[in-house]
Amino acid sequence: MDMTTATALSRYADLPALIGLMEGDEKHNGAAHSTLDIVWVLYDRVLSVTPETADDPARDRFLLSKGHGPAAFYAVLAAKGFLDVPTLRGWTAFDSPLGHHPDRLLVPGAEIGSGSLGHGLPLGLGSALGLRAQGVRRSDGTEPRVVVLVGDGELDEGSNHEAIAVAGRLGVDNLTVVAVDNASASHGWPGGIGARFGIEGWEARDVSGRDHDALYGALTRPHPGRPLAVVARVRS
Fold it and tell me: What band does 163 get if pLDDT is binned at 50, 70 and 90?
């Protein structure tokens, strides 16, 4: 692949080819592909962050709590210019910045080091509260958003339930959680994942995790005074 070809790989249709450059993590292929449409919609249509604003205090923040199998995340970062496309080919090699789990110190655009499940939502809550405490605002006067992508099985971790309860009670409306529901949770929740968030005071919305327009609508409709949980159904 020459650089002319690489720089042209910037569309949704190019993501399979970008993922195809990364080999050797077959056991996490399902985890990667289940997040692909969600991560693309976020970076393409929702998040206010670019390679040029990646260090701007007023940027939106995306936290990949579901950090195992990050191939889709890396592919989207490459398509959006955070990563050079040729870097994907050597991923997980000794001298590559791209590991099996993203490292915020090595991967441009990564906000946290992730892979150990159950940490992203508490970190996202802390980030949202920190931005609020510092009074950080964008030029239009709105707060930066913090969006956390979690898996449904990950919600079994107790640290998530503490964060869900606190965020709802404090009305942290600059916090959004996207929960990928692929029926992998050990126990499930009465009434579904959305009910778990709703009872704690969150705005909960349920959509197909493959429908780009539905995802965009769920992620952008106002929810004043309440954090937002978008349950994205992705079933094979």
Answer: very high
